[in-house]
Amino acid sequence: MDIYLTQSAYSDPGDLDVSGLPRDLAGLAHAVRDVIIHRGEGELFAYLIPEPRLAEDAESRYVTEVLRILRERADQPLTRRRAPDERFVGTCRDFSLLLCSLLRATGTPARLRCGFATYFTEGFHEDHWVTEYRLPDGSWRLADAQIAYGPYDVGFDPLDVPRDRFVVAGQAWRECRAGRADPGTFGVSWLGLKGLWFVRGNVLHDLAALNGVEVLPWDGWGPEILDDAALTEDDIALTDTVAAAGSEDELRRLYKDRRLTVPDEITSYTTYAGVRKVTLRRSRTASPGGSTAATPPR
């Protein structure tokens, strides 16, 4: 079984009829771009996003919830371009998760990657998520559905993002630890969140996503580390190990470590609902576009 063709509890599209979807990456990315508006894109679309939607949509971790909200706002095919007020109000992770879901459902192995983009803010590595998809020759490429066909001019093909323009979290950690990059240039610039502690959080998010647990960007678990001073030598050593992992088998083995596994209950640090505990859906397995079956709790 190809785990990257298998829907996770997060990417599972439920009863979505995929027969009318495009089978090519460009068509699917276009569809995703046309049904989601990033919560920071209101001005770009000349649309004042209602504050209740920011709160409602922010905690929609699962594609089934995204699709439910889309149906409630406009009962129309997923391939039809929507007006801003009919879209799901999301983040980069939601663009990436929906594209990942549709790729898996139509036969292309895909996964989420958490890291940092250099194409939003000059001189800064912004917290960001993209979709990574596998070509028939076994190689992987990065696609950013948020900047595909949208109001962005980044100077490269958003369906083949250069590795130096999107830096996966493990690479970012290695660069910072080696002194080749400044940890103060990694984070969320407009919130003033930055530092090695933030890079560490993305390393854990990326590891989880590679193991089919595609949490929200502000989900946390384990010891609360919200600044560099809170990092211990053990935290740093463990993150060094994850960032150095060189194979999918090693990443799956590492994820079994209880210090790294996402538990059933996490802490959500979302801006709109406040800090709170959230119980996650259990992991599930599924065939592409098919039904899912619950697995025993961890």
UniProtKB/TrEMBL annotation:
Domain named Transglutaminase-like: residues: 89-145
Pfam name, any one: Transglut_core
Annotated InterPro entries: Papain-like_cys_pep_sf, Transglutaminase-like
Origin superkingdom: Bacteria
Protein name: Transglutaminase-like domain-containing protein
Gene3D superfamilies registered for this protein in UniProt: 3.10.620.30
